[in-house]
Amino acid sequence: MPYWDGQTFHLFYLLDRDHHAEQGGLGGHQWAHASTTDLVQWTHHPLALPVGLPGSVDQHGICTGSIFAHEGVYHAFYATRVRAEDGSVSEIVCRAISKDLIHFDKSPDNPQFSAPPGYDPGNLRDPFVFRHAETETFHMLVTASRGGLGVLAHFTSENLDDWTVQEPFLVGRDRHSPECPEHFFWNGWWYLVTSHDGQLEYRISRGPLGPWQAARRETIEPSTLKVPRTAEFTGGQRIAVGFLPWREGSRDSGDFVYAGNVVFREVLQDADGTLSTRFVPEMVPAGGTLTCRLVPNGGLGEFGLLLRANPAEESGYRLCFLPAEERVTLQSWPAQPGIAPIVLTEVEGLNAPLELTVCLQDSIIDVCLNGQRTLIERGFDHSGTQVSFFATNESARLEDLKISP
Asked: Residue 350 and residue 231: Cα distance in Å, rounded?
């Protein structure tokens, strides 16, 4: 949950233990907080929103939310989960306020509200608040479901205290609710950002309330980057922050489990509103990186690198470029049944020279292509110490390879 106050970049995030298993599976999360002015040196603050005392509305944990500033006061809207005596779980919206973005006081009026009639009481979370500049009305977007279909619930207020339910801001395409909404204006375009089953999707408009249309690409990165949200930074930059989940059993074949490592991206914008991402220049580590240039010859073959390679076993992590399909894939190699490759689609310019940066640290494999497209994955099973280059049909050559231990 990144937030820019005009001078400092704040990252509020859910502090997780036991992969969401705390509090009987309700999470037991708390809002942790770190801040920076340069994205390099970070200050870690006390918990912004700790779990409440037994019997309180947030005793089982605090879910995702957002920060909204108004008249010198910072409002932290968030959701909590409450388990009834019959075992059913309801999600409700709460609020805390702060004057300094460090110390928050939970509202004595919590909960602010629960699911309105017709909505699933167990699905009401991730509140995001914005203000319509012309009408001065406050709008709140909330992950929800109604009639078996995931929706982005919509509430309005004139005072940030009393909220009136409106028709859904967005109706999802299936039972999965549009999660972790975000709404912002950037260089002539309004953006409505949600996540579908963890993967970011966004829509664009010339007006704050729509009509919304699809951009040239509907996402920025494969689904291994979970629920990224963005905030401004200096010089007109925009920084996205999501997380790379863990894999069950610390194996390549394990299912993704909550949670993992924070991942930062710099967001790029085309004139037509389409978004893409690159590594944040200030945050690229000095060690653990590989850079090179891959030069295709215009053929129809594929080419790439085998990372953490063991030549004797011909094993590693295969980063493959397929120009004819405008795709980049990353997968454990040799391919194993049940382990699907991570796929970056709609990658333009794969027939031209490609500048590649790969960061390898612990289980993380992080890739940036031409400073404008990124993908990330976990790699547990292979720990070879070499890099191999491959190409079919003489489709490319490798140049200027540099490795920084």
From this structure: 30
Retrieve residue 170's tokens.
Answer: 């967005």
| Token duo for residue 203 | 């829509």
Residue in the structure block whose two tokens are 């300094």: 100
In the three-class reduction of DSSP (H, G, I as helix; E, B as strand; rest coil), residue 288 is classed as: coil
Checking phi first, is residue 362 left (phi over 0); if not, alpha (psi -120 to 50) or beta?
left
Helix/strand number for the chain, H first, E second: 1, 30
Average pLDDT over residues 11-19: 92
C-alpha pair distances (Å), 201 with each of 188, 228, 293: 19, 10, 30
CA–CA dist 113, 94 (Å, integer): 7
pLDDT at 299 over 80: no
DSSP character string of 348-385: TTTTS-EEEEEEEETTEEEEEETTTEEEEEE--S----
DSSP readout, 132-179? -TTT--EEEEEEEEETTEEEEEEEEESSSSS-EEEEEEEE-SSSS--E
Taking CA atoms, 251 is separated from 9, 99, 104, 339, 343, in Å, by 34, 45, 39, 11, 19
Residue 394 has pLDDT above 80, yes or no: no
Residues, the chain: 405
Q: Give the pLDDT confidence score for residue 198 in this predicted structure.
A: 86
pLDDT in tens, 171-206: 988 888 999 999 999 999 999 999 998 899 999 999
Domains of the chain with CATH codes: 2-283 (2.115.10.20), 289-404 (2.60.120.560)
Torsions phi, psi for 334 (to 5 deg): -65, 150
- Report the 10 Å Cβ neighbour count for 71: 5
DSSP, residue by residue, 44-107: EEEEEEPPPPTTSTTTT-EEEEEEEEETTEEEEEEEEEEE-TTS-EEEEEEEEEESSSSS-EE-
Beta strands 9-15 and 289-296, pairing class:
unpaired
Cβ-based neighbour number of residue 295 at 10 Å = 14
